[in-house]
Write a structure and sequence with these properties.
- There is one protein chain.
- The chain is 32% helix and 33% strand.
- It has two domains: 132 residues, 3-Layer(aba) Sandwich (Rossmann fold), CATH 3.40.50.2300; 94 residues, OB fold (Dihydrolipoamide Acetyltransferase, E2P) (Beta Barrel).
- About 7% of the residues have low confidence.
- Strands 2-1-3-4-5 form a five-stranded parallel β-sheet, sandwiched between helices.
- The chain is of the alpha/beta class and 236 residues long.
- The longest helix is centred in the first third of the chain and has 13 residues.
- The chain contains eight helices and 15 strands.
- Strand 11 and strand 12 form a beta hairpin.
Length: 236
């Protein structure tokens, strides 16, 4: 199985470490270089075939945007930056995706899965990536990223500035919003049942009145605005 050969162009050591860790977690990615500026990365690209580049916009010597514009035949590019105002300019340069720091591992995987098949990624490895996203979830909890199986998620509820992920054997607090989980999870399986709840429909034990009784004795109220869609989905 061919791997995507990638380089990291990032001048901040903490950001380098996060990207290297994320790359190591994905079996079909191969890191072949890490650079703190565009000049060194440019010299490397002259003699080393590269499929994908994680490129920070704020770099010393030459900005990431200037560096990208200088390349005649650049690899696929995923931009990384803490400043959202550069997103439009990045897409004008035909980048694959734009990661706004700090980003989760799940968001990282979404970006990876946008890399076109035209590179060395085979169909088998594309399926492997899709399978990984479908099976695993990295939850940012405080300063940690906790890996869980998506099938273990029973329900998610929002509480003030964080969300609670109810699993089959424990509960994990997440820094992400409820909307984030709606965007990330398969909406054929995970449905919003209330303004504060998302449930895994495969974990329902029974529905009674305006309440859904989940596994692990979790009881979730059905919000009026969500009831019709939910019932149509469950009885169709």
């Amino acid at each position: 199985m061919s791997k995507i050969k990638c380089i990291i162009v990032e001048d901040q050591p903490p950001a380098q470490r996060i990207l290297k860790k994320f790359v190591e977690e994905v079996s079909h990615l191969e890191q072949i270089g890490v650079f703190s500026n565009g000049v060194d990365a440019m010299e490397f690209l002259k003699n080393n075939p590269t499929d994908l580049m994680f490129l920070d916009i704020h770099l010393p010597k030459i900005t990431g945007i200037e560096f990208l514009k200088s390349l005649h035949n650049p690899p696929h590019v995923i931009l990384t930056t803490a400043f959202s105002e550069y997103a439009l300019e990045g897409y004008d340069l035909n980048v694959v995706d734009y990661l706004l720091k700090p980003f989760s591992f799940q968001r990282f995987l979404q970006a990876i899965n946008k890399v076109p098949r035209a590179n060395n990624l085979t169909e088998d490895s594309t399926l492997t990536a899709s399978k990984m996203v479908a099976q695993e979830l990295f939850i940012k909890s405080g300063h940690e990223y906790i890996k869980v199986l998506i099938d273990d998620v029973i329900a998610i509820n929002s509480d003030s500035d964080y969300t609670e992920i109810h699993l089959t054997d424990k509960k994990v607090l997440s820094n992400e919003s409820l909307k984030h989980w709606l965007d990330v999870l398969d909406q054929n399986i995970f449905l919003q049942l209330h303004k504060s709840y998302i449930i895994n429909t495969s974990k329902i034990d029974r529905i009674s009145g305006n309440q859904v009784f989940m596994q692990n004795k979790i009881v979730v109220p059905i919000g009026r605005a969500f009831k019709e869609r939910f019932m149509n989905k469950m009885i169709s």
